[in-house]
UniProtKB/TrEMBL annotation:
Transmembrane segments: none annotated. It comes from Silurus meridionalis. One of its GO terms (biological process) is negative regulation of cell growth. One of its GO terms (cellular component) is mitochondrion. InterPro entries: NDK-like_dom, NDK-like_dom_sf, NDPk6, Nucleoside_diP_kinase. This is Nucleoside diphosphate kinase 6. Belongs to the NDK family. Its EC number is 2.7.4.6.
Length: 159
């Protein structure tokens, strides 16, 4: 029999140092998460060492923006969330908007990056780009958290 139950997906959302440094913006972004009906599964405030930053962005090593990105992401406190929702990955990325702030302002002015992004590097938020990267990134930020366990044991309670 077909069931109409929703299946929740997990994503990793990060409020970057530029936004955490602005208390009212941090608050507004937290409210945006709730208003968009994400379930906040875990939340953590943290500061990266430079080596954490280098490891997380290893895929971008060699790109022209790598050094400034690594520098920026280890420059101050961040807030990470594990969020759950149907299609959480794409919904959070829709809310964030395009990576580049000028493009975001031009094509999707209501998105987070369009409204609050400072530069292409200091662009307010991060979001996983697929279910697979969400799993990897959640493990990076929340090594004590088991995605597998949550999907099996917790997710069914939200249906
Ligand atoms: P994110 O991973 O942060 O959610 O953003 P994204 O997928 O839209 O962007 P990605 O290509 O994965 O790049 C990761 C982060 O690198 C910085 N960046 N700067 N100056 C530039 O042209 C440039 N391009 C990327 C941004 O901070 C971006 O979020
Ligand atoms: Mg990315």
């Amino acid at each position: 029999r077909l069931r109409c139950a929703k299946v929740l997906q997990l994503t990793l959302a990060v409020i970057k140092p530029d936004a955490v440094a602005q208390p009212l913006l941090l608050e507004a972004l937290h409210r945006k998460i709730l208003e968009n009906n994400f379930i906040i599964v875990r939340r953590k405030d943290l500061i990266w060492k430079r080596s954490d930053s280098e490891r997380f962005y290893a895929e971008h090593k060699g790109r022209f923006f790598y050094q400034r990105l690594v520098e920026f992401m280890s420059s101050g406190p961040m807030r990470a969330y594990i969020l759950a929702k149907e299609d959480a990955v794409s919904h959070w990325r829709e809310l964030m908007g395009p990576t580049k702030v000028y493009r975001a302002r031009y094509t999707s002015p209501k998105t987070i990056r369009a409204q609050y992004g400072l530069t292409d590097t200091r662009n307010t938020t991060h979001g996983s780009d697929s279910s697979e990267s969400a799993e990897r990134e959640i493990a990076f930020f929340f090594p004590e958290f088991s995605v597998q366990h949550w999907l099996e044991m917790e997710e069914p309670h939200f249906r």
